[in-house]
Write a structure and sequence with these properties.
The chain is α/β, with parallel strands linked by helices. It is built from 19 helices and 21 strands. It starts with 5 loop residues before the first helix and ends in a 27-residue tail after the last strand.
């Protein structure tokens, strides 16, 4: 190695790029230079295989140890194999130019010590290994596989060291709510002096053989190659509902509370109200920060105006005629409100969450509805357990209905906000976790909608009945449907007057109402009632 001058040593102490070149003899590539020279406190890499991240680890670790006698560097890796490999590669970069070094292993902790008193510790991701440490540089390798609680124990190690920095790297695993995903997104969307992020596909490295990489692509599953080599997030997390799925099914209309729905029920101005506007309901019980929420779903009375759009004579879509969510609502007051709604609508079934406080609250709701003793159809209260599989099935059903244009949503800001905020994460075992991250708000209305939709039968059965039965003759059935078509044509102009189309093409009356006179086959008891039962 060429003899180094004092000027060389001074330049190496001030600039990690010079240090890599003149002290280690390992010049950095342009994409690595940008990272090591970044002044950001947190530097986050989403990197494919063989992209050159280990060299960045080594350069920054050894530069920190060289320029600052007594410096401490901590590397946290996802597993013991990764710890050994990374530590060995960094140790191999040490040469006489930066001083003598010794490397030891004790109880799974690999320590590299320079003659100036600086140390590098490489540890597996465990609370025990990271909790009591301090560091001027914290490096987290394969961060997507490091548990959140380990990160929360490791992050404070830089808190008591002025000027300390953090370097985080991984292939794209985990999702929102996990530190790697959240910090990488923050640094990509809003890079600043605190957090800066980079995306490194394997192709960013000039050392990667493009012919070999193409061979890997051809013989690999597309999602595997995209994740491991292109460093692209592949369906492991993200917004559960596309913006188009939601907004193409939104319409402006007035919600129908108990007073309003009675005004549109049979005999409202006569002897008494006949509960003939059908619905099913979902209830989500809140505690502290969450609200108690109620969402109703009903068949849309369109007089056949959408028959051609949704598949033939008598087919109907569903819509949300009423919803409410309030925090601080006492359970008995909320139960009384749901009972009032059940006495105005022909409410077939209420799916009520049993999780948490829901068990006792559901019993309270049963008693409140029974006390109303409203004439007409019996309202059943069915308790349901909501777990990962029920969420997956329930939100999957909502997604399918939205994609088919069969569920109309009101332009209700809180409901739409919650549905937009729902995110999913694919677990290593193949399951899907669906939730609203805590930093994005609540999910009470979204969960109540899920409970209500769980009470809907197969959409193929959503068909208005002509009043005839299989015992009637073919002529009688044909005459009944002919009468239906005549009435449909007569009402079409009425529905279109002041009505509007959703972006999905569904015509929604200006004042939509639940369809009268439907059969019980449109609804059933909630699917997936038992804990762990998929739909």
């Amino acid at each position: 190695m060429t003899t180094l001058t004092l000027a060389d040593l001074d330049a190496a102490r001030r600039d990690p790029v010079v240090f890599a070149d003149v002290m280690l003899g390992q010049p950095l590539w342009p994409h690595q230079v940008e990272v090591v020279r970044s002044p950001a406190r947190y530097r986050v890499l989403c990197a494919g295989r063989r992209a050159g991240k280990t060299r960045v680890f080594g350069v920054l670790a050894l530069w920190t140890m060289f320029r600052q006698p007594g410096a401490k560097v901590l590397i946290v890796s996802a597993g013991e194999t990764s710890v050994k490999r990374t530590h060995a590669e960094i140790s191999a970069m040490v040469n006489s130019a930066i001083g003598t070094a010794s490397s030891i292993e004790d109880d799974g902790v690999h320590t590299l010590r320079l003659s100036n008193g600086s140390t590098l510790e490489s540890v597996p991701s465990s609370l025990k290994a990271v909790r009591s440490a301090e560091a001027d540089l914290l490096i987290v390798d394969e961060a997507g596989f490091v548990d959140q609680e380990v990160w929360e124990a490791a992050e404070p190690v830089v808190g008591a060291r002025p000027g300390a920095r953090v370097l985080i790297s991984s292939t794209p695993w985990r999702g929102p709510g996990h530190f790697f995903c959240d910090l990488w997104r923050q640094g990509m969307d809003r890079p600043d002096a605190e957090v800066q992020s980079w995306h490194w596909p394997s192709t960013v490295s000039p050392m990667v053989d493009r012919v070999w990489l193409e061979g890997v692509r051809q013989r690999s599953a597309s999602d595997y190659f995209a994740r491991e080599y292109l460093a692209e997030w592949q369906g492991q997390f993200g917004a559960y509902f596309d913006e188009d799925e939601l907004m193409s099914n939104v319409a402006d209309y007035q919600l129908l509370d108990a007073v309003t729905i009675r005004e549109h029920s049979a005999f409202a101005n006569g002897v008494g109200t006949l509960r003939d506007r059908p619905a099913v309901a979902g209830v989500d019980w809140g505690m502290r920060r969450d609200s108690n929420a109620l969402v109703l779903v009903s068949p849309l009375e369109d007089f056949g105006a959408n028959d051609e759009r949704i598949g033939g004579d008598g087919r109907r879509a569903m819509f949300v005629p009423y919803l409410v969510a309030e925090s601080g609502w006492q359970w008995d007051d909320f139960a009384a409100h749901v009972a009032d709604i059940s006495a105005a609508y022909a409410l077939h079934v209420v799916a009520s969450e049993l999780n948490g406080v829901g068990d006792a609250a559901t019993r309270m709701l049963e008693l409140a509805i029974r006390a109303k003793r409203a004439p007409g159809p019996v309202t059943y209260v069915s308790g349901v357990w909501t777990d990962m599989r029920r969420k997956q099935a329930g939100f999957g059903k909502i997604k399918l209905l939205l994609q088919r244009g069969l569920l109309v949503l009101p332009r209700h800001p809180e409901l739409l906000k919650q549905l937009r905020a729902l995110e999913f994460e694919q677990s290593a075992a193949g399951g899907v976790r669906i939730s609203v991250p805590e930093n994005k708000g609540h999910d009470d209305l979204a969960m109540a909608l899920l409970q209500a939709v769980s009470c809907l039968s197969d959409p193929e059965g959503w068909r208005w009945r002509s009043g005839v039965s299989v015992l009637d003759s073919a002529m009688q059935r044909d005459q009944a449907w002919q009468a239906y078509r005549v009435a449909r044509d007569q009402h079409r102009a009425q529905v279109g007057d002041g009505g509007r189309c959703t972006e999905a093409g569904l015509l929604v009356p200006a004042r939509p109402l639940p369809e009268r006179g439907i059969a019980n086959g449109w609804f059933w008891m909630p699917q997936g009632q038992e804990r762990g039962e998929a739909w």
